[in-house]
Amino acid sequence: MNRQKILIVDDSELNREMLKAILGEEYDYAEAEDGAQAILMLQQDMNIDLLLLDINMPKIDGFGVLERLNQFRWIEELPVIMISATEDRAVIERCYSLGITDYIRRPFDSFIVQRRVKNTLTLYANQKRLMGMVSDQIYQNEKDSHVMIGILSHIVEFRNSESAQHVLQVQTVTEMLLRKLTEKTDVYGLTEDKIRLITTASALHDIGKISIPENILNKAGALTPEEFNIIRTHPVIGASMLEGLTQYRDEPLVKVAIEICRWHHERWDGGGYPDGLLGEQIPISAQVVALADVFDALTSDRCYKKAYSHDTAITMILNGECGAFNPMLLDCLQEISMRLRSALPTLAADQVLRRDAKRLSAELLQKSAVPHSDRAQRELNYVKEKLDFFVSCCGDMQFEYDVPAGTVIIADRSRPRQQQCTILDVHETDSLRLLRPADIARLRAALKATTPENNELSLSLLLPVGRKQHWHNIRMHTLWSPFSPSHYVGVIGCLTDAQKVQGGYAPFRCTGKSATDEPSITNDIQRLSAIFDVVRLVDPTKYAVLDLDADGILHRTGERCAAFWDNDAGCANCISARAFAEHTTLNKLEFTRNEMYFVISKYITINDTPCVLELVSRLNEGRWIDANGSRFLLDRTRGEDMQLFLDPLTNVYSRRYFETYRTHLEGMEGVALMDVNNFKLINDRCGHAAGDAALRDIANAVRSCIRKTDILIRYGGDEFLLLFPRMTEEAFLYKKKQIQQAVRGIRMSEFADVQLSVSIGGICGVHPITEAIRKADYLMYLDKAEQKS
């Protein structure tokens, strides 16, 4: 049995020895002489069961250690007993406010020290065990439900030749309709739990087709009246099958599934089957799934027809060509039509944002107790904050987003005065039609990552300009309310066309016309140098690196710019040359013999001398950079030790990394989950050493198959999460096959009998990332079921 480990942090060696003598040989011990050493030890080894912490120490005192524990959220997992001679009540209260579990005064009472340490360790051990058991049980139950539903629905799809995406599409449309319906009425009591139940249960809507002969299900031509009557029996059969599950019949999921199975072919006008229900006699769960099922049937290829276009399907449903539906649901379908077209399953996140904004707005309005003068001062502060921001902008277009109101005011300075102002409603689909779904997801994720302290961000987006596409730089600043500091109440920003020379200069802050601008240029280059590995000015027409002297004049340094790329001549596809010729900003991945880099080349002019600003970042293992480098900026500017986020067994990223940076990982095009087959059997037969070796070898095999910009995370136990910044369905299928072959090729010298394999499920283009993971998990267990069959 493993002994529990206690870290004693005290600058007095005598005190540390006394505590070890009192506690005896029952425990393992680690010692730190001050708070700084303690933090370092925790970063390197989190397998500490209890922290005994002194208050007064050099470098970082006990309060400093507690603040770091709270900053890293370790205090939630690691119990702390404070050791001190002080009896100051304020000191003791501060310790408890920072999350300590207990407080022991010196001089030590051996019995008290022993009992409190033992009680604390026992309490946390039991708590961890119970939490682990509950979490495992919840996770396993949920996983089992998804697996069973997935297998059953897959059987139905296989037998009647429907699209492999049929169930997922019906679930997606069902959820979107339900959420839109909650905006219109509360008569159906659609809570989050009920929406989740209906969406999950919708996967079983056609389970009754298992009993229908395949020659009828897959008949290419028209059905005879007799065959159609047989088809019409599947709702009753499906409901009867579920009702026969007497052990589970009272479960909410089964009850909803029975409703959907039996009545998803009923129609609003009473013309459906099997019971001819009319209007609201049909449960709302069956009404919504019926509409989702019809939409999917129209837009999918079937054995008896080709798919209709999106617009044709919507028109047919609204015109009543596919039966009668609840008019309110038809309104919902029409309103989500654009989202359906662009396959943007982010409505849930959008509704959370709107709900939080309304709540925040209500809170602000209810703060009547705030003195009027204070309110006025805050209004003035907001105005000053906006003015300061807009004065620092150089873009033609400025905008202001009022979150509670849901409106965006756009001021386009390049247009005539009477046409400069435009007001948009963000909840109207057409308002955002110029933005790609992936860009909308990036904007939301980036805004969500801001805080009152770090409230500015920049993005690069490709937007239409006439018949062309231009890169635009967007700079944004979030506005925060003191009444609800976890939510921003507004966003101000400016938009600059990066491929359009404005008034003879390029859109960049360090662009200057005179020597007086030189300090600004120097400051900007210094600021960027703290973020990027290489920041330099170049003249690509002369292959020269440039230097800026004290008078703001550019000079050649004598160094060739291509030398950095191990190239004696000019680069074959130099983006700096292209950026210079086109007066624009470009970026690309570039390689040397040993390294891969992300390069941004921006055309600028300094004292009327054109040149290119090059920003170069080396790509480390698992680090992803988007078009504006925000992923790179995250890792570098936070100053965090990335060792904290590595799994010590496999040396890939840990679950802590994912949870910490989840918001910033939004926008990944490809998401996959991987599970080791028969892993429990490996541990049971060969021991945990074999299991650990298997996980290490599998992680190495996967890393050999993926790009440096892809991210591999040990998600939990024998499960791995793979994130791909750029990925297509076709490329993923190839990558999946490559990984599975690499894993099957592993030969473990110490465990020759062990044969390794993995199941993988992945999805592309699904956002938010939590939804992508859910769907990848579902596909992974389908893959596992296929390998077993």
UniProtKB/TrEMBL annotation:
Assigned keywords, A-Z: Nucleotidyltransferase, Phosphoprotein, Transferase
Domain Response regulatory per the UniProt entry, residue ranges: 5-121
InterPro entries with a match to the protein in the record: CheY-like_superfamily (IPR011006), Cyclic_di-GMP/3'3'-cGAMP_PDE (IPR052020), GGDEF_dom (IPR000160), HD/PDEase_dom (IPR003607), HD_GYP_dom (IPR037522), Nucleotide_cyclase (IPR029787), Rev_trsase/Diguanyl_cyclase (IPR043128), Sig_transdc_resp-reg_receiver (IPR001789)
UniProt record, GO biological process: phosphorelay signal transduction system
Annotated ranges, domain HD-GYP: 141-349
Pfam families, per database record: GGDEF, HD_5, Response_reg
Residue ranges of every copy of the GGDEF domain listed in the record: 667-789
One function term, GO molecular function aspect: nucleotidyltransferase activity
Record PTM 4-aspartylphosphate, positions in chain: 54
NCBIfam families: GGDEF
Record's function text: May play the central regulatory role in sporulation. It may be an element of the effector pathway responsible for the activation of sporulation genes in response to nutritional stress. Spo0A may act in concert with spo0H (a sigma factor) to control the expression of some genes that are critical to the sporulation process.
Name this polypeptide is given: Stage 0 sporulation protein A homolog
Species assigned in the record: Agathobaculum butyriciproducens
